[in-house]
């Protein structure tokens, strides 16, 4: 079972596409295989699976992260529908600090995004009834969870939709701006 791996403009943020075995019934794919990741140099062990369902298109969940020592690496995929998945480098000292990348994940394309600890994560759904399923390397720690404003101009994510169309939680509608984020966290910035 092979996993195609592509790099992005942000070091450590990777696109993984597991092989799909198609036949007259449909397809089979190993959506996660630890040794395939280890062989690719991804040593992360995951301890929690998340599954979110969004009724409407243009639903934004994010930009969220947990601060150290509860930081989470996430392996994100789209089980149904389609989304635009975004990672933002928030590691103070990183050469790409404050930069973002986005990738279309869908049931159709089977792509996954590896979002390392030290990155804020969020997505916008492209179609109704989208399911996003993702593995986390640390368990939920609400006291260590932080939200960045999805449309923070200092980050400048292009979500590919009109801001007026966005569907948000109250929490996300009131999230902090990057510049106001208290006590910037020290992350291990790999060379
Ligand atoms: C994240 C999480 C949430 N919850 C509970 C807390 C709330 O009662 C409820 C909804 O949580 P929230 O509104 O934070 O869900 P999202 O807006 O989808 O948050 C996620 O959005 C972006 C895309 C992320 O990457 C994070 O994993 C996560 O922050 O689930 C839990 O019980 N465990 C959890 O791990």
TrEMBL record:
Sites marked Participates in a stacking interaction with the thymidine ring of dTDP-4-oxo-6-deoxyglucose: 140
Catalytic reactions of this protein: dTDP-4-dehydro-6-deoxy-alpha-D-glucose = dTDP-4-dehydro-beta-L-rhamnose
Name used for this protein in its record: dTDP-4-dehydrorhamnose 3,5-epimerase
Pathway: Carbohydrate biosynthesis; dTDP-L-rhamnose biosynthesis
Entry-linked InterPro entries: RmlC-like, RmlC-like_jellyroll, RmlC_Cupin_sf
GO BP term (any one): polysaccharide biosynthetic process
Pfam entry (one): dTDP_sugar_isom
E.C. no: 5.1.3.13
Known role: Catalyzes the epimerization of the C3' and C5'positions of dTDP-6-deoxy-D-xylo-4-hexulose, forming dTDP-6-deoxy-L-lyxo-4-hexulose.
Keywords, sorted A to Z: Isomerase
Active site (catalytic residues): 64, 134
Keyword hit for Isomerase: yes
GO cellular component: cytosol
One example GO MF annotation: dTDP-4-dehydrorhamnose 3,5-epimerase activity
Family, as annotated: Belongs to the dTDP-4-dehydrorhamnose 3,5-epimerase family.
Assembly with partners or alone: Homodimer.
